[in-house]
Amino acid sequence: MPLETLSSTSRVTRFQIDAIECAYTTYSSDSRGLGDIAIIGPVSPDAAESGSVMWQLAARYCSERAQIWNHADWIITQARRVAILQAPAVMPWTAYVGRTYALGTLYANHEALKTARFELRQASGCA
């Protein structure tokens, strides 16, 4: 069961890690629309998936001595590097959040990371 469900129509960057299709978008904690929350996770129809696969990947690819904040940084870095190189698409999305991690300091313009399972829908209308 997700902690929360978030939905919007905004920029979404899609990428793959270890053949897992993932999505990255941002969300704002207030009306200023700063995108201070990173939402990252697999695009999956599997309702049992909560985004935990992102933490498993981070544990696999980070140093054995890495702490949880290193894992959060790694997850955000993977998404940001793709977002810098590839133009995001504007589309409707729903994220079923499984975990929220407060970063403790601003990292890549984010104060928090939410890992979630994404459902993406194609935008309707003309581009």
Descriptive tags:
single chain; alpha+beta; five-stranded mixed beta barrel; 5 strands; globular
Tell me the radius of gyration. Answer: 14 Å
Q: Helical segment tally?
A: 2
- Intertermini distance: 35 Å
Strand order of the largest sheet: 1-2-3-5-4
Stretches where pLDDT falls below 50 for ≥5 residues?
Answer: none
pLDDT averaged over residues? 90
Q: How big a fraction of the residues is strand?
A: over 45%
| CA-based shape | globular
- How many strands, which pairing sense, and closed or not: the largest β-sheet? 5 strands, mixed, barrel
The level of helicity is: 10-25%
Structural class estimated from helices and strands: alpha+beta
By DSSP, the count of extended strands is: 5
| Topology pattern, helix = H, strand = E | EEEHHEE
What count of structural domains?
1
Give a quick rundown of the structure.
The chain has helices at residues 52-61, 68-85; strands at residues 4-17, 20-27, 37-42, 89-107, 110-120. It is of the alpha+beta class and 127 residues long.
Q: Could you explain how this protein is built, in words?
A:
- The protein has one domain.
- 22% of the residues lie in helices and 46% in strands.
- The longest helix has 18 residues.
- The mean pLDDT is 90.
How does the SSE layout of this entry go?
Elements: E1 4-17, E2 20-27, E3 37-42, H1 52-61, H2 68-85, E4 89-107, E5 110-120
Parallel strand pairs: 3-5
Antiparallel strand pairs: 1-2, 1-4, 2-3, 4-5
